[in-house]
Amino acid sequence: MENVTDRLSNPFGMTYPCERPVPGFGDANAHFHVVGDHPGVHGGAASGVPFTDCPAAARLQRALAAGGLLVGTGTPPEVAGTFLSYLYPCADDAPTDGDYAAVEPQFDAELRAITAHVLLPVGERATAHVLETYTPHSVPDDPESLHATESRGGGFLVVPVADPAEWTDGQERQLVESLRELQRTDYRRAADLGRFSADESPYFVR
Q: How far apart (Å, rounded) are the C-alpha atoms in residues 172 and 134?
């Protein structure tokens, strides 16, 4: 199924319990979904666009562009096949566990509407949430060891990303190389339901 919309910011019209939301931004038919923590960590409170307005966000954008997931960097970035969003999209300084829980239904609905093939959680909290919610994998004692590696399960390919504010130069190169290599493979997850149709024509769905 293909989403028909030309809206880049909040393409599904999600509503949030706050006055300053930083909603999801990007291609509603993305193959890659980059998931951050919240604007206070990964930026965007001023611009209203995830992963902007701070040095860590700029560094992540550069790596995503070098890895082929962004056409251009900036505020907003130029996207094609990529979607950016936060677990907690409100521009609050320190969201509580209850705050995250309150917006989880919207986050989950948007993630499943995008139906990207690859999830890229950024930072420890996003990585834990994505692994525990959308895969059978548990979070290791050293989450940074998962940086730029692949975990399959639950219909998604997950590539965790360490927090860009703490990257070494080696981690940045590792992510870029991993993303380039990933796109040289058949990373798409789809099922052929054609066997259930009258003429058995191929019908692929996520």
A: 25
